[in-house]
Amino acid sequence: MRTAYKCRAYPDQAQASVLNRTFGCIRVVWNQTLAWRRHRYQAEKTGTTFTQASAYLTAMKATDELTWLNEVSSVPLQQAIRHQQAAYAAFFAKRARHPRFKSRQGRQCAEYTRSGFRWREGRLYLAKMGMPLAFTWSWPSIDPASIDPTTVTVSRDPCGRWYVSLAVEVPNPAPLPGTGRAVGVDLGQGFRGHQ
C-alpha cells in the first residue's frame, strides 16, 4: 500500500530559485507538449504515445530557444510528460476532462523519482541542490530516517507556502476483527444488504 507524508518545506533563497525555475520549465514542457499533441491529432488524426511525447521533450531540449530546460533536473520534466499521458488516458476512459494548459497563477509542483533525489538519515537532497531541503516533520511516532520514499513532490501554493510530500510503500493494514453484528446498507434504490 502507498501512503504519503506531507510536510511544510522551507527552501532557502537559492533552493527556492532552483525550484521556481523547475516549476517554470515543467509548465513550458507541459504546455508545449499539450499544444503539439493537439496539433498532431488535428493534422494527422492520431494519438500520441508516451515514447513519442518523451522524444518530443528531448527534441525541445535540443533547440536553441529551449536549451535552458537543461538547467534543471530532467526528472520532473519527464514526470510531467508521464502525468500528461495519464491525464489523456483518464480523459479517453471518460474519467476526467481534457487536459488543460497550466498557468503560473495556480499550484506549482515538481515530482522527483528516486533518480532525482537522495534520502539520507531523514534528510532530503534534491537534484541540482547541494544542501538538504529543510522541512517540518509532523509525526513524532515515526522516525523520518526509517522511511524510504519512492517519490518526492515539492509544491508551492498560490499563497507562497512550500510543501514536500514523501510517498512511501507501507504494509497493508491488518483487517479488523469481526463484531458478529449485522449492518443494513441502503444503496439508494430500495435494495437492502446485510452481512
Overall description:
The chain has one domain (2-169). Helix content is 32%, strand content 21%. It has three helices and eight strands, in the order βαααβββββββ. It has helices spanning 13-44, 50-61, 74-92; strands at 2-9, 108-113, 117-120, 123-126, 151-156, 162-169, 185-186, 192-193. The strands form three sheets. It has a four-stranded antiparallel sheet. The chain has a two-stranded antiparallel ribbon with strand order 3-4. It has a two-stranded antiparallel ribbon with strand order 7-8. Helix 1 packs across helix 3 and helix 2 packs antiparallel against helix 3 (74-92). The protein is globular.
Largest sheet: 4 strands, antiparallel
The percent range for strand residues is 15-25%
H/I helix tally: 3
Mean pLDDT: 91
- Biggest β-sheet: strands ordered side by side in the sheet: 1-6-5-2
Q: Please identify the structural class as seen in this structure.
A: alpha+beta
Shape: globular
Regions with little confidence, pLDDT below 50 for 5+ residues: none
Number of strands: 8
**Please, how many domains?**
1
Distance between the terminal alpha carbons, to the nearest Å? Answer: 26 Å
Helix content: 25-40%
Rounded radius of gyration (Å): 21 Å
Order of helices and strands: EHHHEEEEEEE
